[in-house]
Amino acid sequence: MLFPKKVKHRKWQRHRKDVALLTPDTRGVTLAYGSYGLKAMTAARIRSNQIESARKAVTRMVNKIGRYWIRIFPDRPITSKAAEVPMGKGKGDPDGFCFEVRPGRILFEVDGVSKEIAYEALRKAGAKLPVKTKIVSREV
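Given the sequence above, the corresponding structure tokens read:
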């Protein structure tokens, strides 16, 4: 699974689900490497295990024929409290890492395969993620 080698702060403060997260993204919104991409249409936090499961789905379809790129990296630590712990007593322990996705962000890109294979691979990857997605292609 993806996670940073080193972080400056073990725990981050949680953002509110406000206008900042729901406004469309301005960076990473166009295809940079591949011919086909998976674009997020809603906002969410994507955990590293969800990215890994989507990566496996793409890898199985693309195989050795084509290439794929993961355009997001989980660098935000998230915490969770243990089961049946009462309220209070501080913040929970670090549990993993996530990436905050805003609408419009390209998550995965695929190249070197036919349109049908690329669409199927990205559709399967999108099913593993907690965001609504759309498959986009490079305009020729």
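The chain has one domain: 20-81+92-137. Try to locate this feature in the token string yourself.
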